[in-house]
Amino acid sequence: MANRNEKYSRTRVKICGITSVEAAQHVCASGADSIGLVFYEKSPRNVSIETATEIYASLPPFVTCVGLFLDPDIEFVETVLANVGLDLLQFHGSETPDFCQSFPRPYIKAIGMESVETEDDFKKLADQYTTAKGFLVDSHATGKAGGTGKTFDWSHVPQNYAKPIILAGGLNPNNVADAMQACNVYGIDLSSGVESQPGIKDKQKITQLMKEVQRVHCKN
Ligand SMILES: O=C(O)c1ccccc1NCC(=O)[C@H](O)[C@H](O)COP(=O)(O)O
């Protein structure tokens, strides 16, 4: 078994692609640490600034609100930030380090695992995105940059990396325990694996997911 994380006392959980206050409330009640709001028009999980503002206002303290963007215009990010109290930005496209760090919020950078094959590739990333708070490693599929529901080979996730890693891509209540045991990660991020249909979160799946996460925490 287990290359279980010794560095972090528990694995943080982010549920991405929240589109309603009701879903946000359930995610918070289930014990997740963070919600993600998708600001990308082509996504079935895209939220308007108005909806995002309502969701943000409904969050209790200590739950972080992450804004996800994919190659956005600077002006768009600035408009979102002026209206929604995001705690953290997540850049999911080919944004440069200079772009990512040009906003008055911390950020994480999403990386498609097909673009990082070796430890050296990961080292280069940390050298480039020095100000990133961490890297979200995800599966990319043809025509889709995220929310794919596809896993990748978890053995390619580096251990003892310079920055916190958030594991994403095809996680669901049935495989999350294996993923947590396989990777030494700071956090996990899920979207389609806890949905009943694209953009609609499923309460039962979220509850089941958090039970699994607790089970792994208690076991270790
Ligand atoms: O969720 C989307 O629709 C999306 C669209 C474009 C870029 C990124 C997107 N989501 C990114 C996420 O943070 C997802 O949670 C992550 O890719 C994992 O998704 P899944 O495999 O569905 O759990």
From TrEMBL:
InterPro entries: Aldolase_TIM (IPR013785), PRAI_dom (IPR001240), RibuloseP-bd_barrel (IPR011060), TrpF_fam (IPR044643). Its EC number is 5.3.1.24. The gene is trpF. It comes from the Bacteria. Belongs to the TrpF family. GO terms for molecular function: phosphoribosylanthranilate isomerase activity. This is N-(5'-phosphoribosyl)anthranilate isomerase. One of its GO terms (biological process) is L-tryptophan biosynthetic process. It catalyses: N-(5-phospho-beta-D-ribosyl)anthranilate = 1-(2-carboxyphenylamino)-1-deoxy-D-ribulose 5-phosphate. Residues 13-211 form the N-(5'phosphoribosyl) anthranilate isomerase (PRAI) domain. It is an enzyme of class 5 (isomerase). Keywords: Amino-acid biosynthesis, Aromatic amino acid biosynthesis, Isomerase, Tryptophan biosynthesis. Pathway: Amino-acid biosynthesis; L-tryptophan biosynthesis; L-tryptophan from chorismate: step 3/5.
